[in-house]
Amino acid sequence: MPSSARRGIQFAQLGLLLNTVLAITKLVAGVLGNAYVLIADAVESSADIFSSLIVWGGLRIASRQADEDYPFGYGKAEPLAAAVVALLLLGAAAGIVVQSIREIQSPHRPPALFTLVVLIAVVTIKEAMFRKVASVGAEVSSTAVTADAWHHRSDALTSLAAFIGITVSLVGGPSWGAADGWAALAAAGVIVVNAIRLLRPAVHDLMDRSPGAEFLDRISSAALGTPAVQQIEKLKVRKIGFGYHVDLHVQAEPSMSLRDAHILSGQVKSAIRKAVPEVAGVLIHMEPHEA
Question: Which CATH number fits domain 213-288: 3.30.70.1350, 3.30.360.10, 1.10.287.110, 3.40.1010.10?
Answer without folding.
Answer: 3.30.70.1350
